[in-house]
Design goal:
This is Translation initiation factor IF-2, mitochondrial. This protein is of the alpha+beta class. The chain is built from six helices and 14 strands. A hairpin with a 5-residue loop joins strand 10 and strand 11. Bound molecules: guanosine-5'-diphosphate (GDP).
């Protein structure tokens, strides 16, 4: 998160290109709201770039928590700005730890000291001035210290003891949804009709596969196909992996929690009950 123009997009671009472990170059990155950066053979970090302030606040209000760590981007020439403060507030209220990426250190008018002092004034005490928040001076544009930022993320993840359950029924959160008119591939890689309704699901428990039945809000899917951020079909998506899922009858909403059920029949009944409840509530409100 960060104030507009402080370099969030540039940092995400830089991180995407820092995919040094897998060494996969080429392949057009699709906007699916999230992507994974492998940092070693066994570890990877998932970056979520959707939540604008509103989406983040809405997700929180609905109890969905998709973010374990907030990377706060603050440009060292500008320092703390109004939206920087909003981000700090959001992270604090959601009780999510912050790592500060002090960006644009390549600029002649960058002032790291002043930025640190401003952050301290607003309650973010960096380690460099005796606090406990990690701050990493970076240049998103010149890809300086991106590796240090990843290290900092892993350090905080370890401190927070971030763990999930890779088994059991699938649980996740919808990050984005849309109607996709590009072709879908079948098993022999031939294009069939358009993908239709797709949604990016961040898997937070279990392993999502073709055929899994999910309920998200008032939408149901029997997973037809799964795609990674490069647009390639994948067999499954495990814990903390964001994946585009096709096969939705209707579009779920960002922030909807998705969970696996045994049968489509049961899924449809659940949705019907939800719709009835909402209708009853609305009629009650209308009659007041
Ligand atoms: P966002 O609005 O936070 O997503 O910011 P952008 O990533 O779009 O960056 C805003 C402007 O700042 C663009 O012109 C970038 O090229 C520039 N910028 C971003 N990071 C750096 C950096 O590390 N150094 C310099 N000199 N410019 C940067």
């Amino acid at each position: 998160m960060g104030h507009v123009d402080h370099g969030k997009t540039s940092l995400l671009d830089s991180l995407r290109n820092s995919d040094i472990v897998s060494g996969e170059f080429g392949g057009i990155t699709q906007h699916i709201g999230a992507f994974v950066v492998p940092v070693s053979k066994t570890l990877s970090v998932t970056f979520i770039d959707t939540p604008g302030h509103l989406a983040f606040a809405e997700m929180r209000a609905r109890g969905a928590q998709v973010t374990d760590i907030v990377v706060l981007v603050v440009a060292a020439d500008d320092g703390v700005m109004p939206q920087t403060l909003e981000c700090i507030e959001h992270a604090n209220r959601a009780k999510v730890p912050i790592i500060v990426a002090i960006n644009k250190i390549d600029k002649a008018d960058a002032n790291i000291k002043r930025t640190e002092q401003m952050l301290a004034e607003y309650g973010v005490q960096l380690e460099s001035i005796g606090g406990d928040v990690i701050g990493v001076p970076i240049s998103a544009l010149k890809s300086i210290n991106i590796d240090k930022l990843l290290e900092a993320i892993l350090t905080v993840a370890e401190l927070q003891d971030l763990k999930g359950d890779p088994g059991g029924p699938v649980e996740g959160t919808i990050l984005e949804s849309r109607n996709d008119t590009t072709g879908e591939q079948d098993d022999v890689n031939e294009n069939i009709d358009n993908k239709g309704n797709v949604a990016t699901v961040l898997v937070q428990r279990g392993s999502l596969k073709k055929g899994t039945i999910l309920v998200a809000g008032k939408s149901v899917v029997r997973v037809r196909a799964l795609y990674n951020e490069k647009g390639n079909q994948v067999e499954k998506a495990s814990l903390s992996i964001p994946v585009v899922v096709s096969g939705w009858k209707t579009l779920p909403c960002a922030g909807d929690e998705a969970f696996e059920v045994e049968s489509e029949n049961f899924a449809n009944r659940l949705v019907a009950v939800k719709k009835n409840e909402e209708l009853a509530k609305k009629m009650e409100q209308d009659s007041v």
